[in-house]
Amino acid sequence: MNTLVFLLYKYVIVPLAFMLLQLTRPFLKGKLREMIEDKNSGFYRIKIKDSEIELAAARPIWIHAASGEIEYARPVIRELKKQYPYLPIMVTYSSPSAKKILESLHDVDLWCALPWDIDFLVKRFIKKWNPRVLLFSRTDVWPVLVEVAKKERLPAALFSATFAEYRIGISFPES
Predict the structure, then answer these.
(1) Counting runs of H as helices and runs of E as strands, what totals does the chain give?
(2) By percentage, how much of the chain surpasses pLDDT 70?
(3) Contact 33/95 with Cβ under 8 angstroms?
(4) Of the CATH numbers 3.40.50.11720, 3.90.550.10, 2.60.40.10, 3.60.20.40, which one belongs to the domain with range 44-159?
């Protein structure tokens, strides 16, 4: 069942949503339109002292966080910069509201919108930046991104996660 859901997501839901968002974009306003335009343009911001080529060559540590989840990533980013000051930190986001938070994080060398969760776009992003690891903050884990990272042998991990109880119909005795 999970494979069927993933295949529906990957080959029906995401492509259909992508097409609908592209068609309706001229009529949209606010954060939704900004999110679409950021993802379409490959919007990214690099600190002035660094160049795109240097960042890719240095193989950044990639952290993905939704806007509110960046708060959970702050101490991780700070500690990574303390432990590995020579490694660039790249942060991707899903919501444009994250841009304001990211502007204030001095330990982040590059930030940009996460590409659409479509195979070739994710693969192109990974090839461009050549990250050494992908760290997900809390809950914003994208299925195709995880699949492509695995295929590209990009190590990935989840931090600050909260797991919900999942019942599968098996009861265990109380201790």
Answers:
(1) 8, 6
(2) 90
(3) no
(4) 3.40.50.11720
Pairwise CA distance, residues 28 & 16, whole Å: 17
Residues 6+ apart with CB under 8 A from 62: 90, 91, 92, 129, 131, 133, 134, 135
- pLDDT score, position 50: 65
* pLDDT digit string, tens, across residues 81-90: 999 999 999 9
Neighbours of 25 (CB within 10 A): 13
> Which among 137, 139, 78 has a CA at the least distance from the CA of 108?
78
Model confidence band, residue 97 (pLDDT cutoffs 50, 70, 90): confident
The answer to whether 77 touches 89, Cβ cutoff 8 Å, is yes
